[in-house]
């Protein structure tokens, strides 16, 4: 049986792939069922994996918005959505990169944003700003965004994944 590092396994789990011969695994179902966070509209926290706490703080434009002028391939939406997250690690350590995705109801990642490397300090909240500036033309517009996720890649004491239900309408 093949194996891979916990950090690679976490990243692969975010993309529904596997590291061994056992086939894909299902994402964990949060318990209890998540409820909307007050003041954040329709953003609902979902599954989480890893030791780093990831909290959604805000988005511009606000969740629930219709974004027009995206064109048929989504390129007109590039850079028009920005989100803030808070990361909190008990032990701290290096983050190699973070990548956030906005998925349509067809499960294609319509927009993606990525950071470079940075350092988390033990017990100190770090604010992270992601600009979704990498559209995927396979998404097709119009599209309804139904969920997002954030992958924090680093050593096992840092690598984490968080998903949320969120809604945006992308229009040509």
Task: Describe, in plain words, how this protein is organized in 3D.
This protein is mainly β and 172 residues long. It has one domain: Immunoglobulin-like (Sandwich). Helix content is 5%, strand content 44%. The chain contains 1 helix and 12 strands. The strands form 3 sheets. Strands 1, 3, 6, 7, 10, 11 and 12 form a 7-stranded mixed beta sheet that branches. A hairpin with a 4-residue loop joins strand 6 (97-104) and strand 7. The chain starts with 5 loop residues before the first helix and ends with a strand. 32% of the residues are buried.
Element layout with pairings:
Blueprint: H1 6-14, E1 44-49, E2 53-60, E3 66-67, E4 81-88, E5 93-95, E6 97-104, E7 109-114, E8 118-120, E9 126-132, E10 134-135, E11 143-153, E12 160-170
Parallel strand pairs: 3-12
Antiparallel strand pairs: 1-12, 2-4, 4-9, 5-8, 6-7, 6-11, 7-10, 11-12
Report low-confidence residues grouped into runs of 5 or more.
1-40
Number of domains: 1
Q: How does CATH name the architecture?
A: Sandwich
**Sheet bearing the most strands, described?**
7 strands, mixed
Helix/strand/pairing category:
mainly beta
Labels describing this entry:
Immunoglobulin-like; single chain; 172 residues; 5% helix; 7-stranded mixed beta sheet; 3-stranded antiparallel beta sheet; elongated; mainly beta
